[in-house]
Specification:
Distance between the termini: 41 Å
CATH architecture of the largest domain: Roll
Number of helices: 2
CATH superfamily of the largest domain: 2,3-Dihydroxybiphenyl 1,2-Dioxygenase, domain 1
Largest sheet: 4 strands, mixed
Radius of gyration: 15 Å
CATH class of the largest domain: Alpha Beta
CATH topology of the largest domain: 2,3-Dihydroxybiphenyl 1,2-Dioxygenase, domain 1
Strand content: 35-45%
Order of helices and strands: EHEEEEHEEE
Structural class: alpha/beta
Helix content: 10-25%
Length: about 120
């Protein structure tokens, strides 16, 4: 028996707007809405889905799991994400590899890497 990643789920006090935000950023679409408490986003170029579930009290502090996104235009994509409501937290370089750490409108941390 093996495991297969089916979904990455985010907790949120208001999951609808966050699901729509990620769907727009990741070229996805909302394929399921369950009475405002659970949303599923299918991604155009990924075999897994993202989900957003309503909870009363999100876990405080830094998330222990985060998304690593890639792009062909790092600076342009970071600018688009910030314009759409993301916040830049840090820029990193390791040799020729460069990435930017951001947070989505709910404060979930994610990274974007790519060429500049």
């Amino acid at each position: 028996m093996t495991l297969t990643l089916g979904m990455i789920t985010f907790d949120s006090t208001d999951p609808g707007p966050l699901a729509h935000w990620w769907a727009a950023r990741a070229n996805g679409s909302i394929v399921e809405e369950n009475d405002g408490w659970f949303y599923v986003v299918a991604l155009a170029e990924a075999p897994y889905r993202m989900a957003f579930q309503k909870i009363e009290d999100p876990t405080p502090g830094k998330n222990r799991v985060h998304l690593d996104m890639t792009t062909q235009d790092l600076d342009g994509e970071v600018a688009r994400l910030i314009e759409a409501g993301a916040s830049e937290l840090a820029q990193h370089t390791m040799g020729d590899f460069r990435w930017v750490t951001l947070s989505d409108p709910d404060g979930n941390v994610f990274c974007v890497s790519g060429s500049h």
